[in-house]
Amino acid sequence: MISKFLKEFWIFGWRNALSCLFPAFIFLCLGLSHLMPAAFPRYDFMLLMCLLMQVIMVMTGLESKDEVLVICVFHLLGLMMELYKVKMGSWSYPEFAYTKIAGVPLYSGFMYASVASFMCQAWRRFDLKMERWPRHGIGWVLAAAIYINFFTLHLFYDFRWLLSLLILLAFLPSKVYFTTTRSRFFPVVLSFVLIGLFIWFAENAATFLGAWKYAYQHKSWQMVKLHKISSWTLMAIVSYIIVAQLKLAKYGKQVLTTSDKPEKPGAEVPVIN
User: Fold this and answer.
1) Are 107 and 51 within 8 A, CB to CB?
2) Cβ distance 213 to 89 under 8 Å?
3) How far out from the chain centre does Cα 119 lie?
4) Comparing 18-27, 51-60, 263-272, which segment has the lowest mean pLDDT?
5) Residue 82: which domain range?
6) Which residues partner with 100 through β-bridges?
7) Is the pTM of this model over 0.90?
8) DSSP characters over 23-55
9) How many structural domains comprise the chain?
10) What's the longest Cα–Cα distance across the chain?
11) Kindly report the CA angle at 173 between 170 and 179, in degrees rounded to 5?
């Protein structure tokens, strides 16, 4: 019994570690960037390394062309948010770089793309299947609303708690099935929170290594404020929904669990947009 648990735990941890290859590489490069000479700005070094890593992952087959397209979408979404948030003073990139636009280094988009990379890799390695996923485009609408709220909260009101309630109502029945030595399931809502919490811990490491800085971190490093967990959880939800919706659009019934498939011949399969 214990040996089976340890085997399954090892497989689960190893596959997650492999799925985190891109994020782990970014952290490694952030550490190494402090060793760069002054003539080679850290942010430029990071962009070069991220581009190199992306090329290597494609050439070695670690990422498919479809996954690269998803990652590029996240890179653009992340870069647009960075441009807006830096302009609004939410955080800053104080160091000089040749590859900065409006105060934002181009490598920053890869930090968002690395989250998408993890999700695409984990989806494939764990053969993820969805049960009772929201129908009729609900996922797309909620993902768009969350992303837009990151911008509009600076203008009139932050609807994150209302959006969190809608997410809870829409996804509470949903489960994600993953396979190690056998198939197991996990509540989708709980996976949202755990991914957001994991990213918050990663953000603390990233700010400590000087990836960017919040206003309260300029004099000396401090832990990222706890309320950022909700922000990263919502961003994780956007990433999760987009990857899942694209998988559903491409593979359809194959992404559903057997409990979502018809039990009788000719029974109708729910349409998932």
Assistant:
1) no
2) no
3) 6
4) 263-272
5) 18-256
6) 105
7) no
8) HHHHHHHHHHHTTS-TTS-HHHHHHHHHHHHHH
9) 1
10) 69
11) 120
